[in-house]
Amino acid sequence: MTLEEVNLFVELAEEGMNHALEHLERELIKVRAGKASVNMLDGILVNYYGAPTPLNQVANVSISDSRTINIQPWEKSTLGPIEKAIFEANLGITPQNDGEVVRLTIPPLTEERRKDLVKKVKSLGEDAKVSIRSSRREAMEHIKKAVKDGFSEDGGKMKEADVQHLTDKFTKDVDDILIAKEKDIMTV
User: Fold this and answer.
1) What is the 3-state secondary structure (H, E, C) of the chain?
2) Domains, the chain, ordered by start
3) In DSSP terms, which residues pair with 71 in a beta bridge?
4) Closest CA relative to residue 104, chosen from 75, 76, 65
5) What whole-number distance in Å separates Cα of residue 149 and Cα of residue 163?
6) Which among 104, 114, 107 has a CA at the least distance from the CA of 68?
7) Above 70 in pLDDT, residue 1?
8) pTM confidence score
9) What are 3-30's pLDDT values in tens digits?
10) Residue 158 and residue 148: Cα distance in Å, rounded?
11) Rg over CA atoms, the chain
């Protein structure tokens, strides 16, 4: 086995860890911290002429103040499906439809709800760490196999150290992101 092949295992591990971090960040955007954000609506699909369509492709989504999101559909006939999609997304917010616009008023978070959100954030963080460790495990198995197949033992140890260094770096990144999000949620 060549050095390039072993380096590929390390690169694949880094790619997997980076993917886990990006996924965590996308999921955390959806966890609301008491402030209105159009990102809260990412992933909501509206039944648009029988096809599930992202909300931002059937309406203009905007923030009118720190606690209100306005959804202005391009066709009035989509008001009902938009409202239904928001209910089904289970955001904990009741949409208000005035016949022209759907408004979402973000209620202030209670202490209990904040603690629940922190638990959810920690769970998402743990999922990311599991994914990072999984990438590490796969890379380590490939490196050990490469050593058995003739790659130098010292080179294998160095590559294992590289993978461990990446694991530590990405785990610390996850912890830093979680601390920032937890602070954001708990700040009244």
Assistant:
1) CCHHHHHHHHHHHHHHHHHHHHHHHHHHHCCCCCCCCHHHHCCCEEEECCEEEEHHHCEEEEEEECCEEEEEECCHHHHHHHHHHHHHCCCCCCEEECCCCEEEECCCCCHHHHHHHHHHHHHHHHHHHHHHHHHHHHHHHHHHHHHHCCCCHHHHHHHHHHHHHHHHHHHHHHHHHHHHHHHHHHCC
2) 3-30+110-186 (1.10.132.20), 38-105 (3.30.1360.40)
3) 61, 102
4) 65
5) 19
6) 104
7) yes
8) 0.72
9) 888 899 999 999 999 999 999 998 888 7
10) 15
11) 22
As a residue count, the chain comes to 188
Q: Which of 162, 143, 163 is nearest to 153 (CA)?
A: 143
**Tokens matching residue 26:** 């996308």
Structure token digits, residue 170: 């990405």
